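Students often ask why we bother encoding 3D structure as a string. The short answer is that it lets us treat folding as translation between two languages. Here is a chain of 163 residues written in the first language.
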Amino acid sequence: MLSARTLLASAIATAVVATSGTVTALADDTPFATLAGTWSGAGQVRLEGGKYEAIRCKAYYTTSSGGKGLGMAIRCASSATKIEMRANLAYEQGRITGDWEERTYNAAGNVAGTSTGDHMTLTIDGGGLSGSLAVRLSDKTQIVSISTTGSTFRGLNLSLTRG
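And here it is in the second language, the structure alphabet:
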């Protein structure tokens, strides 16, 4: 069974996906401009000791402030448990900042990083863990890789598509 920190880290990784834009976005556009709507997908959680577990996620994104703000609700499930995360993010001149909360395990923290073209580099902190994230984008797919410290969760690879 996954620990609360492991599941929380999985939710955070998924939330980072929400900060991504599309490859075709113009320099003046925000990375949030085309995200509104529903996305879903699956991946694998990498645990301490080299173990893996499948995870499925569904994400709902809404934009605000002319596309400079992003609200999200993300639900993920593995064979062991379910998680529910919310986040509010802001974009300004290539920088992304924001906060997140995981409601099932009552944890919260911060997200910060940069967005350039089809790539994002972000960090997460809070809930007893820290991590680095890389997001690769295409027009219809978002691919997230994450590595963390501070929990039995060691990483996540996830692919989301619209719809």
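Translate back mentally: Confidence is low (pLDDT under 50) at residues 4-11, 13-28. Keep this in mind for the problem set.
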